[in-house]
Amino acid sequence: PEAPGLPLRQRLAVAGAVAAAAAAGWLYLRQQKERQRRSRRLRDLRALALGRGDFQLRDTAGAARSKADFLGRWVLLYFGFTHCPDVCPEELEKLGRAVELLERDAALPPLQPLFVTVDPERDDAAALARYLRDFHPRLVGLTGTPEQVRAAAAAFRVYVSAGPRDADGDYVVDHSVLTFLVDPDGLCRDCYGRSRTAEELARSVRAHMDAYEPLPP
Question: Disulphide bridges in this chain (predicted)?
Fold first, then answer.
């Protein structure tokens, strides 16, 4: 309780201290709630076993690639196809923008953008290389046999279904529109739908990086 005869300066100091303590307590509770939310999210993703399976694909240079090649780095991964009329280009633009925002902070760990085709029949290495030139310069494209691509999609629970062919033999591939964040241990940390902006995606990735603790050996 405030003393009746306390000078104004001291009363202001007491009030300021009380306000600062309240603000610190509120901030602590907010951070604790966010840590708990991320922990629940990670448990849910692990329960789904998202991304636990390996994949065997090839990059645009023809080199064999597996998930082990990306261990030790954070990865933003998107499944799509080069003949996609609008959704895939929009999502890759967003992914590239998020990576650019994070690259501005040299203190953050490396982040690898990755694109896996769901249409290996049309998306060979040359087609992927041509297509990905329009997006982030470090975006790595992966393709493979239909069996290898199906296995990679299944590892991340990505739905894939090719539609009927038209008179020209063209078709659209229906697939899950999600961007996955994979940590340096190879575990899926989060996934982002179309409603998330590049700025929101970058903030979420940064928060996961800040909270990351490597798995024990």
Answer: 84-88
